[in-house]
Write a structure and sequence with these properties.
The chain is of the alpha/beta class. The protein has 3 domains: 20-85, PUA domain (Archaeosine Trna-guanine Transglycosylase, Chain: A, domain 4), CATH 2.30.130; 92-202, RNA methyltransferase domain (HRMD) like (Transcription Regulator spoIIAA, 2-Layer Sandwich); 224-416, Rossmann fold. It is 27% helix and 28% strand.
Length: 417
């Protein structure tokens, strides 16, 4: 499937056979021995020769003993993304197969839960740094974040198809990578690497519900798979309750709330196309009586403005879900991000009925969990509301955490007096 002359993979260069030898600083050595997946440019003390994206770099310790091997990327401050620690390895199809098989086995239980939409590979946390693979039924969406993967895509995609049979593999790229066409050799964001292009939107199952996604143009790879377990928690809280879902995107939380018996569901998002997809997702589940009978309303406006208006109008809800996009992409945005989370808590509590449930999440890895939870509680106190925690949640099984910086998702479930 990947070897045809007209395949975009046929135009890619083969990886260089010559490896780069590196020595790194003592702190970087210690981090590598502990399994950290990155080497930053400033940590490199000696380098055998200049390298291109995708060259394999071998890191040695001060006794010239092997420490790690990884993908070299001269375009990034993360100069090497580590593939293998401690023991030397040949990075080839057999190595890729072992990594993909291990990742598949970790997620095997999901297939018993009427779920065929999940993250198959979670980057560094599954030993494949700078790459994620999401599965939507028989479609795999492979997203890369570094040009270091480009020379290896031909062999990797072939191995992927053998390890995880599917109908197609779609390529997505990070925004920074799209801006580096000189390293892409004709690859384009959204192109089909293997199989036939999808005829339209993809339908997949999650905990027995049917959702659609647009893996070519949608945010991330088409759906926010990381909130699956929190959506299920919302379902259990929703019976006979009114639910406000803020930053709803395509209505994942909303459909779960409806199946849980919510009498009213309001989905708020700035994107009108995303909310149209939310309407579609309700229609895909009309065979479920609770979804069919739920009253669903959409509001395509800025979430902050909507919350402020609903509060001034004294509209109350029993459950308020606040799942915003990343507010802090770097160190300089942490203070502003925390301020935004606090404002959302204040506005959310302004429409939450006393005794109701606040569900507030953060996907900003730069803001750690304790700092986020503390900001939510402080904002509640400043709003003269008291939060009684029900649960704090983190990553699901298909989004494992392999190192500190890999943790990003946190979500608070709390009753507000």
């Amino acid at each position: 499937m990947t070897g045809s002359p007209d395949s975009p993979l046929s135009l890619l260069p083969d990886p260089a056979s010559k490896r780069i030898a590196l020595r790194v600083s003592a702190p970087a050595e210690r981090a590598l021995r502990q399994g950290h997946p990155w080497i930053f440019d400033q940590a490199i003390t000696t380098q055998s020769h200049a390298g291109a994206p995708g060259d394999l770099a071998v890191i040695f310790d001060n006794k010239r003993q092997f420490l790690a091997i990884g993908l070299y990327d001269p375009t990034s401050s993360i100069r090497v993304r580590i593939l293998q620690h401690h023991q030397p390895a040949i990075i080839n199809s057999a190595w890729f197969h072992a990594k993909l098989l291990a990742a598949s086995q970790i997620r095997s239980s999901l297939l018993q839960q009427e779920t065929n939409g999940y993250r198959l590979v979670h980057g560094e946390n599954d030993g494949l740094p700078g790459m994620v693979i999401d599965r939507y039924a028989e479609t795999l969406v492979l997203k890369i974040y570094s040009p270091g993967w480009v020379p290896h895509l031909k062999e990797f995609t072939s191995t992927l198809l053998q390890t995880v049979p599917c109908e197609r593999v779609i390529l997505r790229m990070s925004r920074s990578l799209i801006k580096q066409p000189e390293f892409l050799h004709g690859l384009e964001d959204g192109m089909t690497l293997a199989g036939q292009p999808a005829a339209g939107l993809i339908l997949f199952r999650e905990n027995g519900l049917t959702f659609e996604c647009d893996p070519v143009h949608g945010q991330k790879t088409g759906f926010f798979l990381d909130q699956r377990e929190n959506r299920a928690r919302v379902e259990r809280l929703s019976n006979e309750r009114s639910v406000l879902n803020v930053f709803a995107y395509t209505g994942g939380f909303s459909v779960y709330a409806a199946r849980g018996g919510a009498k009213q569901v309001v989905s708020v998002d700035l994107s009108a196309p995303a909310l149209q997809a939310a309407i579609h997702n309700f229609s895909h589940n009309q065979h479920i009586p609770a979804v069919r009978s739920a009253h669903h309303e959409i509001i395509a406006e800025d979430a902050f403005d909507v919350l402020a208006r609903l509060g001034s109008q004294k509209q109350w809800f029993d459950v308020v879900i606040i799942d915003p996009p990343m507010f802090a992409r770097n160190q300089n945005q942490i203070a502003a991000g925390l301020s935004a989370y606090k404002k959302l808590t204040h506005l959310g509590l302004g429409v939450l009925r006393p005794g109701g449930t606040l569900v507030q999440a953060s996907c900003s890895s730069r803001i750690n969990a304790e700092t986020f939870y503390d900001a939510v509680h402080r904002s509640a106190g400043e709003s003269n509301r008291h939060l009684i925690e029900i649960e704090r949640t983190s990553h699901a099984i298909d989004h494992p955490i392999g190192f500190d910086e890999g943790a990003y998702l946190k979500c608070l479930f709390a009753t507000a007096s």
